[in-house]
Amino acid sequence: MAGKGLEGGARDPLLELSGTALRAYMLLLRSRRPMGVRELQHRLGLRSPSTARHHLERLVELGLARRVEGGYVAEPPKTGLLRAYIIVRGRLVPRSLATAAFTLAATLAYAVLPGSDPAAVAVLSVAAALSLLDAYTAYRAAETLRIDSAQQRPS
């Protein structure tokens, strides 16, 4: 089935989503508890519960959500674009943020050591800056996805 993985030409499940289904997924990702059909219908401004159920079942079919007691919960993606993120308190946080923080801390620690080589500090500073830029870019991409999905009109 398309969207289950990236091997064999299958597409990223996130690329299978647009409009209301994407908004539903982002809402489930931010939710810290199961969400029922009626709650999703209300929060997305949908006209009928059957429309909400359709989008939730589409997410289940793509492996992006699962049914639990009390409704549906988002499944962290196992492949594709969103693998570059972890979900912290309902927010997408770039995995590269940990690398950037470590690189920055190591650079600062080395820079304050007596007798540290200024050339090495400069190289480490560039590496730290690039790591931070990568993490920031990934964060902005996630925010754009969140904002874009929030601005879609209900169907």
Automatic annotation (TrEMBL):
This is LexA repressor DNA-binding domain-containing protein. It comes from Pyrodictium abyssi. The keyword Transmembrane applies. The chain crosses the membrane at residues 92-113, 119-139. Gene3D superfamilies: Winged helix-like DNA-binding domain superfamily/Winged helix DNA-binding domain. Residues 36-70 form the LexA repressor DNA-binding domain. Coiled coil: none annotated. Keywords: Membrane, Transmembrane, Transmembrane helix. InterPro entries: ArsR-like_HTH, LexA_DNA-bd_dom, WH-like_DNA-bd_sf, WH_DNA-bd_sf.
